[in-house]
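Support request, priority: normal
Reporter: lab tech (M.K.)
Component: structure prediction queue

Hi team, I submitted a job for Amidohydrolase from Paraflavitalea soli yesterday, and the status page still shows it as pending. I've pasted the exact input below so you can check whether something in the sequence is tripping the parser. The sequence length should be 436 residues. Please let me know if I need to resubmit or if it's stuck on your end.
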Amino acid sequence: MKRIFFTILMGSWIVTSVSAQETVYPAPAQAQTIALTNATVHVGNGQVIENGMVLFSKGKIVDVRPTAAIADVKVIDCKGKHIYPGLILSQSNVGLVEVGSVRATNDDTELGQMNPNIRSLVAYNTDSKVTNTLRNNGILLANITPDGGILSGSSSVVQLDAWNWEDASYLADNGIHFRMPSLMLRGGGRGGFGRFGGQQPTGDPVKRALDQVENVKVFFREAKAYYQEGTHEETNLKYEAVKGLFSKKQKFFVHCNIVKEMLIAIDFAKEFGFDVVIVGGSESYQIADLLKQNNIAVVLDQMHNLPTMVDDDVDQPYKTPAALQKAGVLFAINDDDGNTRQRNLAFNAGTAAAYGLTKEEALAAVSLNAAKILGVAEKTGSIETGKDANLLVCDGDLLDMRSNIILQAFIQGRELNLTDKHKQLYERYKYKYGLK
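Reply from support: The job had stalled in the queue. We restarted it manually and it finished. Here are the results:
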């Protein structure tokens, strides 16, 4: 009797384990040339091909054109469907933070204020439960960004189908992140006691913030002198980490929102020659022409939010993308919502399309524009010959939550298993309540 019970129990365990997300393995390399045919192809650069075909082999896009007969390839008929480039999160903590309220699952913050040598890539967890939910919403790449301090460290672009961080790496250490001290005068948190209920530092907060900014400038002046030296008696890891900023191999991501803070970001670009990207930029619409003149890109971090100032239009966050587009500013739309864990990226772009952008401009803001800002536009961001086959096959409009149903997804030509924890729980409770 015990043996029978044990056998039944083991059988039940095996069935459960086989259906668990842990058995969703990264896909093997593309072995056969594939043609997606008869679809509406949204290239990502504003072009749309009706009844189009995308041909890809060995992970690369070979041809994009109207559908025609083709031999010796695997043909997938996508009649009535839409093909899009994979979406890109311009800033994300996926793989660094699993459960925000559980400290042991968080690996995005280092002690200290000046940590440019910290590399977020080596902490990236490819086994995160969050990753698969992002893929099911069309997000195939993400820029993994550290947090904490003033100079938080370097971000890296990863593709979301990998065994480990080495496999995931798409572009390593593409930028250094500067968390601008707030120049906005405001009271404390709940009850006036600050963010965490503790006593706030005394003195002028704006002066204190400006002193911190000056300390960062001093650091970069010293780093520049170090960079210009031919040889060094000792290696300084912090200075070595920012060498790419001076050679423009790295971007300088400045996290700030209000105009005064963005003017300081522009000052960094002028003094040090950095390739500056503003992250946040809720008031960027006010100085859009100035940003264009100084070649400053913007990542709009969270559109579904209230405006920064009480006298701003309540729908200003929705209108800002159109204002930047009109001024010719390179910008990307992001999703920084800690509750939805960034999976609403496509719908943020859809909101922008309802407030002044065209659908194709909104798509570019979460694909090609993001790729340009992150430095990976030569490899991804649009459906063009020679680029990686990072593709989505969607049943309807990708930017509309009513019709956004991802049927197939490919990263570098590898077809993904689109199982995730959400789908598994959905099936579990359908079974419980007899809805199968």
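The first strand starts at residue 34 and ends at 42. The chain has two domains: 19-85+381-436, 101-116+173-379. Let us know if anything else looks off. Ticket resolved.
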